[in-house]
Automatic annotation (TrEMBL):
Signal peptide: none annotated. PANTHER family: 3-HYDROXYACYL-COA DEHYDROGENASE FAMILY PROTEIN (PTHR48075), 3-HYDROXYBUTYRYL-COA DEHYDROGENASE (PTHR48075:SF5). Residues 191-286 form the 3-hydroxyacyl-CoA dehydrogenase C-terminal domain. GO terms for molecular function: (3S)-3-hydroxyacyl-CoA dehydrogenase (NAD+) activity; NAD+ binding. Residues 11-183 form the 3-hydroxyacyl-CoA dehydrogenase NAD binding domain. The record marks H145 as: Important for catalytic activity. It is an enzyme of class 1 (oxidoreductase). The gene is hbd. This is 3-hydroxyacyl-CoA dehydrogenase. The keyword NAD applies. NAD(+) binds at G15, A16, G17, T18, M19, G20, D38, E97, K102, S124, N148, K278. Keywords: NAD, Oxidoreductase.
Length: 287
């Protein structure tokens, strides 16, 4: 079976959080009809609010027109019922970063979706192969790892599971490109390319701060001015969410050993409930 991007009409997104709503937004801007599903109406509504704010920023910056923003929003349908995704040609799952939750979702999608549908997960570190094994069609499952903020970041990581079919991989590259993104490919190994390299960098930045190498501002300036990245490790950790960084680091540590040990201060911040920008405080304080 050969999947063609030209044949895609409807895109399903599971999860209406930061990543899911971003994926719904870029899919709608690309002209697809989108069904965005979360488990509670309130989460779906929050997803629409995030989309409206983000579309507003894009209109303000001139990236899209007001009427393009309105048309994109109108193409997105919200739901709490997974069965409403049944007609979608491709589904991107962006729910909780928990292997059991993801396996349950994929097992349910396996029941609901037609045979040709491509089932992608936006997981940042979990095994595509383990998620795919919850279905009877592991060849149709792969990783499509978007970056935060999805509407702005150009890159999408395509992850090849043990059983992913070649045409599904090809489809995924073409689909992401149709969303205006550029892709690279990773084998299904912990953290793929990005988080395998990014998480130790963030943890080392946190350790450098905790061990008194420099102030947090100087660590971030050292890396932004010194290596031309847009954000230093502490600011980026706040942007991603400290809970997400900790969870990704723990998965890497479990799979790859001690060189991936999470920074102590990262754990302490998460335990204190300071998760970064989203809670108003992480390494920095936000209004
Ligand atoms: N929606 C729409 N537009 C947005 C936006 C959003 N959520 N956030 C920012 N923008 C737009 C702004 O409107 C602005 O547009 P303009 O230049 O046309 O006026 C542009 O993006 C730049 O935004 P700002 O001027 O507010 O701020 P910055 O120049 O600092 O850019 C940033 C913000 C794009 C977030 C930039 O700091 C950046 O690239 N940071 C690094 C982000 C990063 O590395 N993300 C990947 C994290 S790793 C990951 O996601 C993987 C996961 O598994 C952990």
């Amino acid at each position: 079976m050969t999947r063609k991007v030209d044949a895609v009409e409807r895109v399903g997104v599971v999860g209406a959080g930061t990543m899911g709503s971003g994926i719904a937004q870029v899919s709608a801007i690309a002209g697809y009809d989108v069904v965005m599903r979360d488990i509670e109406t309130e989460y779906v509504e929050n997803g629409f609010e995030t989309i409206e704010n983000s579309l507003g920023r894009q209109v303000e910056s001139g990236a899209i027109t007001e009427s393009e923003a309105e048309a994109a929003e109108a193409r997105i349908e919200g739901t709490t019922d997974l069965e409403d995704l049944a007609d979608c040609d491709v589904v991107v799952e962006a729910a909780l970063e928990d292997i059991d939750v993801k396996r349950d979702i994929f097992s349910d999608l396996d029941e609901v979706m037609n045979d040709e549908a491509v089932l992608a997960t936006n997981t940042s570190t979990l095994s595509i192969t383990t998620i795919a094994a919850a279905t009877e069609r592991p060849g149709s499952v792969l990783g499509l790892h978007f970056m935060n903020p999805v509407p702005v970041m150009k890159g999408v990581e395509v992850v090849n599971g043990e059983k992913t079919d070649g045409d599904v991989l090809e489809f995924a590259h073409a689909f992401a490109e149709d969303l205006g993104k550029e892709t690279w490919e990773s084998d299904d190994k912990p953290g793929f390319v990005t988080n395998r390299i990014l998480m130790p960098w963030i943890n080392e930045g946190i350790r450098a701060f905790d061990e008194g190498v420099a102030t947090k501002e100087d660590i971030d300036s050292g890396m932004t001015l010194g290596t031309n990245v847009p954000m230093g490790p502490l600011e980026l950790a706040d942007h991603i969410g400290l809970d997400i960084c900790l969870h990704a680091s723990e998965t890497l540590h479990e799979e790859l050993g001690d060189r991936y040990t999470p920074a102590y201060l990262l754990k302490r911040k998460v335990e204190a409930g300071d998760l970064g920008k989203k809670t108003g405080e992480g390494f920095y304080i936000y209004d």
